Amino acid sequence: MTEAHIEDDVIGRVRNTRLSKSQSLMAIFEAVVNSIHAIEDSQHPGLIQVGIVRTAQTTIADTILPPVLGYEVVDNGVGFTNANYKSFRTADSRLKLKRGGKGIGRFMWLKAFTNVAISSVYIENGETRKRAFDFVAQEDPIQNIQEGLTEGEPRTTVTLSGVRPSYEGTLPATAATLADRLTRHLLCQRASNVDQQCASKIDQGISVFS
Asked: Is the pTM above the cut of 0.85?
């Protein structure tokens, strides 16, 4: 049975995590960077899809978009292997230190969103396995764990849902705006020589849809 304990007070960490309204995109960007790293580790051509999750359409006006429920980041990287899952459960993990990772990105997710759902198909010791769980800012932060053997190619989906009231209206509401802001952010990272490897891959398979 997979351990469900995360080695920290998640509620306290989320409360103490700084994320200004003007920087709310960082929550989504952190998920995209994780996807880029996962694809780098897989050592094969990758694809990242970033989508906007909306409520069901209730109007016949095609020009009116339904409200945003959250965002979805999908990649075909290595996934939540045992090593990556252990790192996820360890606050301030040093697993990605050489890449500039500080091990705090997932707390930004919960700063801006009430729920994070993760579903990952990965290869472990020659077996194709699936690991799925919810990550929430509660005493028991990792919930609804599902794991076992499965079929298919490696694929990980991170769904950020339930925008917190303090960040409503600060996140992109259209695919075009989301794509533009992600591109700008990645390019800014490259210009400041931060996470340069990630920024250099902006044109290598990141698509945005709504």
From this structure: no
